[in-house]
Amino acid sequence: MTRQLSSELLKLRTTRAVAGLLLAAAALTLLGACVEGLSPGSAELVTRDIQRSMFSAGVTAVLFSTLAGLLAVTSEFRYGTIRPTLLVQPRRRVVLAAKLAAGALVGVLFAVVCVAVAFVAGRTILAVRGVDVALEGGDLLPLTLGTVLGSLLGGLIGVAVGALIRNQVGAIVAVAAYAFAVDAVLFAAAPAVGRYLPGKAGDGLAGLPDADLLAPGAGAAVMAAWTLAFVVAAVWRNDHTDV
Asked: Per residue in 155-164, pLDDT tens?
């Protein structure tokens, strides 16, 4: 298992698409923090909710870690390297477990980078505009560790979705369509239902300032349940279908 995990991490480190996703996540986090921090007037920026929106820009990591986890599986099927991988390690569950572990670690990396970018940008904007930090002690845990946990679970979901769909283009389109259509539209139309979807549960876990979202603890439980469901489905497909 240790050697297989090392192999999976090496694949991710040497895949330019993963590095590109990390840079894109950091850039969008910076953009989000700047938009949330520079758009409001000073009278609005002093409020806790506006500052929470600015510092929560790091939640971008969740979507991008999902895409990175997805690539960990679909790239192997796209380029045919899954066959030599299984020849070296014929136990499919070991291979899938290693990919899940690698996806989780990549998710943590994405979150750490994005949270750092969000907090550095946010503190810089507040200092430049002469505004004091209004966050309370209870805000920091979801904004930091909540985002890390959400991104970790996002990486696991990405690996599971990749194992379920396998076609790289189809899997990317499915995740993007869900994130920008199903998740957002259903939450806007019926927030009482939409907040239980994986994406919005992750937003709640990260402490985004929206009264319709779940509390961080409930968001963690819901997102963990979704992750478990996807992983179980991926294990079943992995065991019962040919490569």
From this structure: 999 999 999 9
